[in-house]
Inverse folding.
């Protein structure tokens, strides 16, 4: 039976740079230097980061293929009084990686969880995209197979929120082409590639034109990619204000439907065909 220390350790969830090592926050460096153990997604990948900041703390692998035994081992060490830092290959752990299993198990065991904020590709891309950011949805990676990918895109086609995806470089062109087919050629999409790195590129356009640009430039089919999709426009009937409805009702009391719709379009800015259909629905 595992002994539990009177003062269990702390699990630190530490964000690391997504490219530029200058984005490493001092608190993250101090934490990684002082914990007993670092649980890294890929210990070999993280060795450059740790070496750069003279961090000599021992590392252990914790990734997609880690089983419950590894989680239990880490939780036992935390219960024994050791503090552990969880890091991913880049960015904020738990954003499109398996760290939540460890965090969940540690929390259930009564371990204190402390986040050390820092870089996150999703948030960095959103901040520079110029798309609505009051409501957004992070969808992670889309399915690799086209049928499944299109099905997932279809389920999101009417979502009014800004949609954020991660995508692999070898699938970026196919994904943009599928988005054009499912969302419509004119839907605005921003592609943020190689953020904070030498060849950082952020470009927005109609998705069909963005796909053509990527197809014509193989350099855009390399590196780490974030795609941000403008949310679906609201149906016009949802956008009709009480004042616009009042105007139409007054017109319909005095005029035939066709004439009321024509004048109403000039007064409200809504489309005449929409107002005509709306008026017919009111008389049913």
């Amino acid at each position: 039976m595992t002994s539990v220390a009177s003062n269990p350790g702390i699990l630190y969830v530490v964000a690391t740079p997504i490219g530029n090592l200058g984005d490493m926050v001092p608190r993250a460096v101090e934490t990684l230097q002082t914990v007993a153990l670092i649980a890294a997604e890929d210990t070999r990948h993280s060795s450059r980061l740790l070496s750069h900041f003279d961090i000599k703390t021992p590392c252990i692998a914790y990734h997609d293929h880690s089983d419950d035994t590894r989680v239990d081992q880490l939780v036992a060490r935390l219960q024994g009084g050791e503090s552990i830092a969880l890091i991913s290959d880049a960015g904020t752990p738990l954003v499109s990686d398996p760290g939540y299993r460890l965090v969940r198990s540690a929390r259930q065991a009564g371990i204190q969880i402390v986040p050390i904020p820092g870089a996150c590709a999703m948030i960095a891309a959103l901040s520079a995209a110029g798309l609505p950011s009051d409501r957004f949805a992070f969808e992670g990676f889309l399915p690799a197979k086209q049928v499944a990918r299109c099905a997932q895109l279809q389920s999101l086609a009417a979502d009014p929120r800004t949609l954020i995806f991660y995508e692999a470089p070898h699938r970026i062109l196919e994904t943009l082409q599928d988005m054009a087919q499912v969302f419509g050629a004119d839907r605005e999409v921003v592609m943020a590639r190689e953020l904070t790195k030498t060849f950082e590129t952020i470009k927005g356009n109609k998705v069909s034109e963005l796909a053509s640009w990527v197809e014509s430039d193989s350099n855009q089919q390399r590196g780490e990619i974030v795609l941000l999709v403008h949310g679906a426009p609201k149906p016009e009937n949802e956008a009709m204000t009480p004042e616009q409805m009042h105007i139409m009702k007054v017109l319909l009391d005095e005029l035939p439907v066709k004439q009321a719709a024509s004048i109403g379009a000039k007064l409200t800015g809504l489309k005449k065909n929409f107002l005509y259909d709306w008026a017919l629905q009111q008389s049913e």
Observations:
- The chain is about 45% helix and 20% strand.
- The chain has a mean pLDDT of 92.
- The first helix runs from residue 26 to 34.
- The CA atoms of residues 19 and 197 lie 5 Å apart.
